[in-house]
Amino acid sequence: MAANSVASKTARKIGIAVQKAASRNKVWWYDPHMAAATSAIVQRLPLVDLVAEIRDARIPLSSEYELLRNFPSLSRRIVVMNKIDLADPTQLKGWMRYFEQQDCIPYGVNSHNKDSVKGLLNFVQAQVRGLCKGNHHSSETITIMLVGIPNVGKSALANSLHQIGRISAGEKGKLKHATVSPQPGETKDISSLKIGSHPNIYLLDTPGILPRIVHDAELCSKLALTGAIRDGLIEQKELAVYFLAILNLCDQYKKWAKFSTNQSRLDRKEEASISSKLEMRQKKQYPMDHTQDPIVHDVRGAIFNTISSFDGNLELEEDMIKLIKAQSVALRAAFHVPEDVGENVDNKSVLSC
User: What are phi and psi of 202, to 5 degrees?
Assistant: First the structure.
């Protein structure tokens, strides 16, 4: 049996659980603030100059903002794929071509990388200049609405663009801040942030909106895994199994060799020094960048060690389960979780549907 059956079975279990919860409690899935936000967005959409749909670069189709389907004649739409640092770069190129074929203007960004956000700001300003020139736009103010499902990074991106845009324009005064949280649904109102001058460019940061009904269980599981829906509905260990089953089938872990405990201390120190210098020169990342967290380093090292040392056949389901069990133990140590807290991953939790 193919190894991806572990991922598909777990995804189906997660998706069905989400669908059942949504059908039992529609307010939980599509709560009153989403309904109010939908109405406000629908009223403003025809009035803005540009629409930037923010998607999760890891799931660019599943993170579609379905509300825009009601506006087929909407022009000048930018599809911004955020979190590109977490996505497969080879697949990202394919998605860029796909969105171009859909008559969208695609752009990939990491909202926690200063240079990446600067690139997006320059790109947006170029689009605004083209808009003003092509349409002979007489207004001195351009409005861009950011839309997307929950937790794709709209508010973090809006804050970064606002900060960099104000500094670039040499403007003084107190910076505004959109609410940013790892939990979905924290943005309740539409807020306006200035990101440019001459002409004045304002971003409208909007609350994340989910579709009223989701019929696809696999889509639900992807939304759960990437944090688009609230915690608490799905057991965290189920999400962990789903994630590891996907990760174990790709080569992403090979990039984390520098975090391996099997690597010599001297090699790690030298490699870390080189990496640090490159990051200082090239990335200029914000302090909030999660990739610099020591715990993240430990987790990546644990994953690298378990996969690289595993001698089983990952095309077999039982071997995939065996590897996930070993990773569960290693990750508990990386996260400093006491042995008497929680439960280990077992075959039943992986395979029950």
Answer: -120, 140
